[in-house]
Write a structure and sequence with these properties.
The protein is of the alpha/beta class. The chain folds into two domains: 212 residues, Isopropylmalate Dehydrogenase (3-Layer(aba) Sandwich), CATH 3.40.718.10; 130 residues, Isopropylmalate Dehydrogenase, CATH 3.40.718. Helices cover 41% and strands 20% of the residues. It is built from twelve helices and 14 strands. A ten-stranded mixed sheet has the order 2-1-3-12-11-4-5-10-8-9, with helices on both faces. The chain has a two-stranded antiparallel sheet with strand order 6-7. Helix 6 packs across helix 7. The radius of gyration is 20 Å and the shape is globular. It starts with a strand and ends with a helix. It binds 3-isopropylmalic acid (IPM) and magnesium ion (MG).
Length: 359
Amino acid sequence: MSKNILILPGDGIGPEIVTEAVKVLAALRDGHGLDIEMDEALVGGAAIDATGVPLPEATMALAREADAVLLGAVGGPQWESLDISVRPEKGLLGLRSGLGLFANLRPAILYPQLAGASTLKPEIVAGLDIVIVRELTGDIYFGQPRGVRTLENGERQGFNTMVYTESEIERIVRVACDIARKRDRRVCSVDKANVLECTELWREVATSLVKREYPDIELSHMYVDNAAMQLVRRPKQFDVMVTGNIFGDILSDAAAMLTGSIGMLPSASLNAAGKGMYEPIHGSAPDIAGKGVANPLATILSVAMMLRYTLGNAPLADRIETAVNRVLDSGLRTPDILSEGMTEVGTEAMGDAVVAALK
Ligand code: IPM
Ligand code: MG
């Protein structure tokens, strides 16, 4: 049966990079028997401009029906003055929570061809292969109460709430352990248990869950400040990292730079049924939008994750990853990963090269 994929280009460089990823999907459909149909809808600032809201009901309805969603990026300076409750980012957060996409997988793999593009010394990052498992529908991102209130003395005070229930912690730690079982069986849980009760509970629940259900997994714990330092100091010590929404947001940007460019990192956001939304971890990069220079590889690699996790087609996922490797071998580079002796290309040429390398 044909699978339905909803394409949400979004804002900034979103439409440019998604165009290249759609080319890859179309090539797999036309040349490799991938049975898919694609639909497109509005999200983020593009949706605000057209309909007044960042996540129109029509988009949400299509997303609910789709087997998988491919998203570019949302946000940009032209919407920054809007109230936070109706900004483009709310479209993305609404999709994540509305579809129950609690498990965000952010693999950070250093392609050997890009060792020189990292800001870290090659020996620190060579062979890097870690996965950050970020909880995506809880924490301070969604906790109530939240807002800005005026105190009795007339001063305003902003407040947000960090919250996690035991079941939310257990289900994300399970995802991390299941992934670790296919790897080196090591999970590092990141928290701030020395200061925050919420994450003290996180540590306690993670410890007892792993003891009960995953005795074969080696679980360690690290405070988030130390984890940030260790990621740039000795990143290869990690196998799988599991953490909450806000810590995962921050640590995954740091991990991205280990791989040379944030333009290389794909992600999968999965719900309990395995349905997923796939997106690059980078943002809408308004500074380079419309210039045709954005790196489409994170989005193309997100399609590979879609094939692997939601469409159950590992061979075609491998094919995309091999194609990306070949293109990097051939020396083509977008500006973000450019190094001496390589050939600079734009977004479209990079996408075309990957399509050609699929053959
Ligand atoms: C990410 C992004 C989003 C987040 C923004 C755009 C809301 O930074 O996916 O990491 O904070 O989760
Ligand atoms: Mg982020």
